[in-house]
């Protein structure tokens, strides 16, 4: 009887492959990349950034600057994710464009695009301002996509009965967002926010110090401190920088993430209370504080009421879907015609730059893509093998979570690029040592995307379903097959998409690195992009970047997107 029990909705998944929207989006992104490359040609030839002191006394100041950049990028990422995912999940016409665009955006290799952003900004703005803006943009692109995917996945898997209840109560869009959608997605958003900060720390070294030819962009901060220490082979400096980073991560865990997880536990979709809910001493202090309660009553609650009234006037009772008249269609045709002409001209100019690449260069790009794809698949298989059991343990066992959760957060937040030189020195003497090191760095930079999503999925399993599995006497294997894996499936898809995209991005630093004044590289598209950046070969940079984008988008649309629709149709808890 146990094998006949279904805890999840079943249905026929929709098969969706590439369509016209994908091609238009790819063309548009290609034109944007070309514009950035073209602007880069007008950037100043020589740029010198400020000196970075390796004195431990400077670490508190550098830490404040780095956390400030991270916070600004995170706020932008959160706002972007909420708006973008909401529109994509609630408007089918917009979804046809926004989802392909999201696939493209998360597949853009940010480390290859960074020199383009830096140089194009510096062609228009002072070097220091350009570096600050480019740093925030890079950190934003390392934080936003997994949060957007997680938010979209949550919106598309809300149980039907909750949707019907919101319709019966005639909730407008704001109240539906506030009372249903955000609470339902709270756990997933919090865990992915932790992952976003971890991803930001990973790319911090690249975001705060970058060299393109004779242009040396650098910003005071922890990332620049770690990068300078690594380049100089200063092990003591690396230790000081990593220690400062660990202190920041522990403080964030105790004063931000743990209180948020304890608060968000109230939003779990279950009929009975969990046996081991997450706890936080700081959250308990805030909950028992009379000062905080008075501040909430006199400031927070009146402010929320004003926001409710304001948003209630702005947003209608349902997402607007109106018939298109002749005049509206003519306006759309005119706008699309102008956009189409602009894309056609930009594509023509980009093609003119791409034809400068020789057949040998294109051969390097194709071989590099195939080699990096093998490393990405290897890294993803290894990641799945250990993150699923560990994530389920942390998400379902309070005692294990109290020990392992802060440890995982610290390990995930330490920039792998800071530790990579040490691993490189150990592995370089082994056969295929550079290839092993490349896969290792991909793992260190991307495995956490999957682990945090698995933890979020395991923590969201309702307690009443666990009790049901126990009463039915399901064996461990049957419990995994009928409850745990189906419940995790949407989170596994989301985590795998972001992890694989992160692995492609990490290939740029994994396949080509400089330590102690010497360059180490292996065959791969990341090495091609890094070498093109170092030599200022912009046609090769454009061709390799666009090739990586196309490859990742094809994989997402032909494989991961199909799994997304299976998750939406067959594994919604109802």
Overview of the molecule:
Residues 1-16 and 318-325 have low confidence and may be disordered. The chain is mainly α. A hairpin with a 2-residue loop joins strand 1 and strand 2. A two-stranded antiparallel sheet has the order 1-2. A two-stranded antiparallel ribbon has the order 3-4. It has helices at residues 20-40, 59-90, 92-107, 110-124, 127-156, 160-168, 173-202, 204-208, 222-231, 235-264, 281-288, 290-314, 326-354, 359-396, 398-413, 416-427, 433-459, 463-471, 476-510, 525-535, 538-570, and strands at 209-212, 215-218, 512-515, 518-521. It is globular and about 65 Å long. The longest helix has 38 residues, at 359-396. The protein is built from 21 helices and four strands. It starts with 19 loop residues before the first helix and ends with a helix.
Uncertain spans, ≥5 residues at pLDDT below 50? 1-16, 318-325
User: In DSSP terms, counting alpha (H) and pi (I) runs of 4 or more, how many helices?
Assistant: 21
Mean pLDDT: 78
For the largest sheet, list the strands in their spatial order. 1-2
Q: What is the assembly state of the chains in this entry?
A: single chain
The gyration radius over C-alpha positions equals 24 Å
Tertiary shape: globular
């Amino acid at each position: 009887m146990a094998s006949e029990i279904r805890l999840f909705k079943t249905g026929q998944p929709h098969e969706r492959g590439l369509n016209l929207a994908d091609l238009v989006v790819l063309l548009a992104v290609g034109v944007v990349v070309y514009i950035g490359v073209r602007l880069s040609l007008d950037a100043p030839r020589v740029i010198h950034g400020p000196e970075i002191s390796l004195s431990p006394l400077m670490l508190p100041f550098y830490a404040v600057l780095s956390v400030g950049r991270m916070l600004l990028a995170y706020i932008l990422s959160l706002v972007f994710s909420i708006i973008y995912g909401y529109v994509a999940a609630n408007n089918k016409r917009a979804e046809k464009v926004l989802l392909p665009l999201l696939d493209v955006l998360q597949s853009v290799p940010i480390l290859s695009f960074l020199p383009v952003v830096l140089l194009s900004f510096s062609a228009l703005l002072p070097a220091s301002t350009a570096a600050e803006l480019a740093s925030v943009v890079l950190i934003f692109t390392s934080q936003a996509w997994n949060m957007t995917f997680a938010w979209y996945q949550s919106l598309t898997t809300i149980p039907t009965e909750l949707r019907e209840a919101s319709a019966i109560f005639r909730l407008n869009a704001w109240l539906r967002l506030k009372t249903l959608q955000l609470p339902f997605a709270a756990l997933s958003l919090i865990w992915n926010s932790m992952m976003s900060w971890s991803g930001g720390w990973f790319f911090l070294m690249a975001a705060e110090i970058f060299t393109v030819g004779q242009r040396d962009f650098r910003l005071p901060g922890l990332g620049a401190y770690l990068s300078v220490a690594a380049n100089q082979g200063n092990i003591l400096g690396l230790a000081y920088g990593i220690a400062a980073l660990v202190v920041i991560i522990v403080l964030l865990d105790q004063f931000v993430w743990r209180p948020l997880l304890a608060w968000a536990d109230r939003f779990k979709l279950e009929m009975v209370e969990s046996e081991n809910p997450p706890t936080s001493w700081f959250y308990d202090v805030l909950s028992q504080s009379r000062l905080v309660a008075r501040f909430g009553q006199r400031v927070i609650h009146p402010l929320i009421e004003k926001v409710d009234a304001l948003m209630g006037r702005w947003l209608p009772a349902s997402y607007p879907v109106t018939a298109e008249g002749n005049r509206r269609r003519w306006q759309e045709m005119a706008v699309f015609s102008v956009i189409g002409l602009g894309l056609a001209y930009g594509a023509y100019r980009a093609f003119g730059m791409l034809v400068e690449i020789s057949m040998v260069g294109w051969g390097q790009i194709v071989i590099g893509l195939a080699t990096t794809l093998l490393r990405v698949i290897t890294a993803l298989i290894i990641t799945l093998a250990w993150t699923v059991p560990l994530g389920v343990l942390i998400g379902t066992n309070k005692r294990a979570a109290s020990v392992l959760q802060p440890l995982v957060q610290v390990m995930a937040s330490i920039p792998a690029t800071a530790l990579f030189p040490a691993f490189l020195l150990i592995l370089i003497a082994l056969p295929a040592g550079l290839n092993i090191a490349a896969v290792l760095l991909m793992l260190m930079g991307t495995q956490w995307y999957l682990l945090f999503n698995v933890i979020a999925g395991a923590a969201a399993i309702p307690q009443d379903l666990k009790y049901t599995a126990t009463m039915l006497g399901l064996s461990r294997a049957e419990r995994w097959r009928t409850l745990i894996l189906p419940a995790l499936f949407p989170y596994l898809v989301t985590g795998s998409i972001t992890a694989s995209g992160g692995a492609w991005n990490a290939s740029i630093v994994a396949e080509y690195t400089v330590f102690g004044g010497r360059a180490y590289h292996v065959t791969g598209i990341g090495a091609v992009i890094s070498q093109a950046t170092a030599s200022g070969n912009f046609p090769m940079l454009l061709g390799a970047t666009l090739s990586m984008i196309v490859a990742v988008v094809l994989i997402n649309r032909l494989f991961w997107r199909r799994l997304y629709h299976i998750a939406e149709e067959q594994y919604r808890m109802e």
